[in-house]
Specification:
The structure is a single chain. The chain is mainly beta and 154 residues long. The protein is built from 3 helices and 9 strands; from the N terminus they run αββββββαββαβ. Strand 5 and strand 6 form a beta hairpin.
Length: 154
């Protein structure tokens, strides 16, 4: 099925009410392109954890592991304008993180394009999401990522 036929078939299913409106083509599903979006339905394991800073501290170091298409979302509560810093060290060169405002259609930082350190002012009061993932080249092989993530909000 070529892309034009796929789009026509997907549009027909959406109109018929059998597929949610956020359905995308196979080339842009979250499992194959987590760098592009954070606010879409997911078919692979996504773990979500709230980050709580220890009393009197404004940062936390988190260590974790994921494999294949799994992702981990770390939620941090922030105020608009608050400076947020996130950095990651990982065991796999294809491991990255993104930063997004909760329910935003696109990330404000895409690690695969911008590197392993983010520092910026929060655009919202609410939750920022730090999503850790493996790029498709490693995920499809079932590769593992062991990582250390530093998250700070000042």
């Amino acid at each position: 099925m070529n892309q034009a036929h796929f789009i026509a078939a997907a549009a027909a299913l959406i109109v018929a009410g059998t597929v949610p409106a956020q359905a995308t083509s196979p080339a842009t599903t979250p499992a194959t392109s987590p760098a592009n979006t954070l606010a879409t339905a997911q078919t692979d394991a996504t773990r979500s954890e709230r980050v709580q800073f220890a009393r009197g501290h404004s940062s936390a170091t988190i260590t974790g592991e994921l494999r294949g298409y799994d992702t981990v979302d770390y939620r941090i509560g922030v105020r608009a304008g608050q400076t947020v810093h996130v950095s990651m060290r990982g065991s796999n060169a294809s491991g990255y993180f993104n930063v997004s405002a909760d329910n935003a259609p696109e990330a404000i930082f895409v690690g695969a394009m911008e590197g392993d350190t983010f520092t910026g002012a929060s655009p919202i009061t609410g939750d920022l999401i730090v999503r850790v993932y493996l790029m498709r080249n490693a995920a499809r092989r079932g590769a593992r990522l062991n990582y250390s993530l530093v998250i700070a909000a000042h």
